[in-house]
Predict the 3D structure of the following.
Amino acid sequence: MRARALAPLALAAAAAAGAACDKKGDPAGLGPWTFTRSTLADGKKQGRCQPTELADGRKATWCFGLQPIKAGGRVGELDLYFAGASDDAKLIEIQLNVRGCVEEDLDKWIRERFGPPFETRAMRGYWKNSFLWAAALMPSEAGRCRVHFLPLSEGAEIERIKLK
């Protein structure tokens, strides 16, 4: 009887949680880092940050030493890049670096979160949704895989990564 009484509350709570989700349920980032909300102020709270210059000459801030995540059964270290040096600078790239990477495990992990890739090449997979584009380089170097996540607005950087 009590379960029936709580059912409408559970549905209301689920609806409220869904309202906080990004449109179509597409992931807009990785873990706590999203292209729709994360700013440099968030990066400074959780890691070490320093100025850098992007390949296209723009000034940016690189944050590292962040809480790692589990990816494909391995530890994944995160590097974040923000567009500028002000606290309100937007997140423009998430790099996930997986040491001791097992390509099949990482591929399965990514597919569970982002679905099937829209394109695959030798040792690469590409994903895209309404918020982001991702490229998994498996391996990117001996014993390591790197996955780049970028907002769709970073077209020039997406093209540069495709050419790697």
Q: What stands out?
A: The longest strand covers residues 132-141. The longest helix spans residues 2-20. The chain has a mean pLDDT of 86. The radius of gyration is 18 Å.
